Amino acid sequence: MCALKKSGSFAGMIGSGFAHLQHAIDEIADAGFRTLKKVGTEPKEFPKTPKGGSWMQKAKAMGKGTLRFLGEAGESYYRKYDELKVKKK
Predict the structure, then answer these.
(1) Rounded Cα distance, 73 and 27, in Å
(2) The pLDDT value given to residue 45
(3) Residue 56 and residue 65: Cα distance in Å, rounded?
(4) Which of 3, 40, 47, 51 is a Cys-bridge partner for 67, taking CB atoms 3.0 to 4.6 Å apart?
(5) Rounded distance, CA 45 to CA 74, Å?
(6) Per-residue pLDDT of the chain (89 residues; tens, 9 = 90+)
(7) Are 44 and 61 in contact (CB under 8 A)?
(8) What angle do CA 70, 71, 76 make, to 5 degrees?
(9) If you compute the radius of gyration of the chain from its CA atoms, what whole number of angstroms results?
């Protein structure tokens, strides 16, 4: 009987550890998505050329747009995920 009680306590400890690990991963991912969005929305630091810009400027603009999209998608995911977790309770 005593071994079963200890095993339940150990299982609870393992489950709690996994919950903390998942929470930490969620926080890191959320911070990463916020950073991506911030980088994607920062003003351009390079001047435009009169003929429509070089390929490098276009690539930078596309990259920033991609980062902004990923950041917004990630933030949206975590907002909805948090709402669903609250509804479950």
Answers:
(1) 15
(2) 60
(3) 14
(4) 40
(5) 25
(6) 455 455 678 888 888 899 899 889 988 998 888 888 888 777 766 555 555 568 888 888 888 888 889 889 988 988 888 888 888 77
(7) yes
(8) 100
(9) 22
Closest Cα to residue 69, out of 45, 41, 50, 27? 41
Q: Which two tokens stand for residue 82?
A: 């948090």
Domain boundaries of the chain, sorted by first residue: 2-88
Residue 36 belongs to what H/E stretch? helix 2-41
pTM above 0.85, yes or no: no
Taking the C-alpha atoms of residue 16 and residue 6, their distance in angstroms, rounded to an integer, is 15
Written as six digits, the tokens of 83 are: 């709402």
Q: Is the dihedral of CA 7, 8, 13, 16 positive or negative?
A: positive
Which pair of tokens denotes residue 86?
């609250």
Looking up tokens 């276009």, which residue turns up? Answer: 58
State residue 49's pLDDT score. 55
**Which pair of structure tokens corresponds to residue 50?**
């009169």
